[in-house]
């Protein structure tokens, strides 16, 4: 007999989401009588979707684009991470009927960098490409919260960066926070001052995309993390490996944000190996 749906990812669109295939084996392994499904929810309909899930006895859900802000506004309580990152990606429907909003994206990125490069964000000077986007801002906030000694923010639309930089310094422990545009000279100069480069732009999703920074900016001592995981080797990661830099893709961030979400629902760690294996299968 099939298991009752009691967990889901909501988004719009959502059919591409890897979360169901990542979470189901972990649920099965932990002996949880629940299936994890994808639910397409139109913008403006998140409250309605939450009420329905609560009525149907859901444990919680994940929230993806474009609902991370809308979901946050509906929560009765937010974790410190959700407050700091200004969005929720994981929801817990509590037995008393209240809704708790978490954000595991920042912790997921942090764990990914630790496992992939053996370094903590607190010891790295970091350049974030696309820091004005949703993922980029969350990553920048996490870097500052963990005490990264220097954070360089770059974004095509540079106007987005000034308020973000001010927020990072005033509210999230940002030390040396520098904003820059996407011109060749600024990117080469900033890259020469950092250890870790993170691509949080959408450049690299398509094979025809240009690199998010000039190839001359890449150095053999760099660690280069691309938040994109499909394709697994973006043009940026290929160029970075060619100069001898260490590289990793966004699959590890996806995996660890999912593992932290599982912990938020059940208070136990999931079987990471099974989740990872499931993510590698298409
Ligand atoms: P978003 O909010 O739409 O932000 C997109 C970012 O990309 C913005 O900074 C945008 O700059 C920049 N950008 C878009 N087209 C560009 C171009 N042609 N040239 C230069 N910059 C460009 O999207 P998001 O949700 O933050 O996602 C960003 C990336 O992170 C996506 O590739 C997504 O797959 C990835 N991601 C991965 C994970 C994971 O778990 N691994 C989680 C979340 C997101 P402007 O501000 O100028 O528009």
TrEMBL record:
| CDD domains noted in UniProt | NAD_bind_Shikimate_DH
Q: Which positions bind shikimate? A: 17-19, 64, 89, 105, 229, 257
In this chain, NADP(+) is annotated as bound at 80, 155-160, 227, 250
Q: Where is the SDH C-terminal domain?
A: 250-280
Q: In which pathway does it act?
A: Metabolic intermediate biosynthesis; chorismate biosynthesis; chorismate from D-erythrose 4-phosphate and phosphoenolpyruvate: step 4/7
List every stretch annotated Disordered: 1-23
Domain Shikimate dehydrogenase substrate binding N-terminal, which positions? 9-91
> Quinate/shikimate 5-dehydrogenase/glutamyl-tRNA reductase domain: from which residue to which, for each copy?
119-202
* Active site, per annotation: 68 (proton acceptor)
Q: Which reaction does it catalyse?
A: shikimate + NADP(+) = 3-dehydroshikimate + NADPH + H(+)
**SUPFAM superfamilies for this protein:** Aminoacid dehydrogenase-like, N-terminal domain, NAD(P)-binding Rossmann-fold domains
Q: What is its EC number?
A: 1.1.1.25
Q: Which PANTHER family match?
A: BIFUNCTIONAL 3-DEHYDROQUINATE DEHYDRATASE_SHIKIMATE DEHYDROGENASE, CHLOROPLASTIC, SHIKIMATE DEHYDROGENASE
Family the entry assigns: Belongs to the shikimate dehydrogenase family.
Q: What function is annotated for this protein?
A: Involved in the biosynthesis of the chorismate, which leads to the biosynthesis of aromatic amino acids. Catalyzes the reversible NADPH linked reduction of 3-dehydroshikimate (DHSA) to yield shikimate (SA).
Report what the protein is called. Shikimate dehydrogenase (NADP(+))
């Amino acid at each position: 007999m099939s298991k009752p749906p009691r967990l889901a990812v909501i988004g719009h669109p959502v059919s591409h989401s890897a979360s169901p295939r990542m979470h189901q084996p972990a649920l099965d392994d932990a002996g949880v009588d629940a299936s994890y499904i994808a639910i397409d929810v139109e913008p403006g309909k998140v409250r309605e979707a939450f009420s329905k899930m609560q009525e149907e006895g859901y444990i919680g859900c994940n929230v993806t684009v474009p609902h991370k802000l809308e979901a946050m506004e509906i929560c009765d309580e937010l974790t410190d991470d959700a407050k700091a990152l200004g969005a929720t990606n994981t929801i817990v429907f509590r037995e008393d009927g209240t809704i708790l909003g978490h954000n595991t994206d920042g912790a997921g990125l942090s764990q990914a960098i630790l496992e992939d490069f053996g370094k903590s964000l607190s010891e790295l000077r970091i350049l974030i490409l696309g820091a004005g986007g949703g993922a980029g801002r969350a990553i920048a906030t996490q870097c500052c919260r963990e005490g990264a000694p220097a954070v360089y923010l770059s974004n095509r639309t540079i106007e987005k960066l000034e308020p973000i930089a001010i927020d990072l310094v005033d509210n999230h422990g940002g030390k040396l926070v520098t904003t820059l545009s996407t011109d060749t000279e600024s990117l080469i100069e900033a890259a020469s001052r950092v250890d870790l480069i993170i691509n949080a732009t959408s450049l690299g999703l398509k094979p025809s995309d240009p690199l998010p920074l000039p190839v001359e900016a890449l150095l053999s001592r760099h660690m280069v993390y691309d938040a994109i995981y499909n394709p697994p080797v973006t043009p940026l990661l290929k160029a970075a490996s060619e100069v001898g830099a260490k590289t990793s893709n966004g699959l590890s961030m996806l995996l660890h944000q999912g593992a932290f979400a599982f912990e938020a629902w059940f208070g136990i760690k999931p079987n990471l190996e099974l989740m990872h294996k499931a993510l590698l299968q298409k």
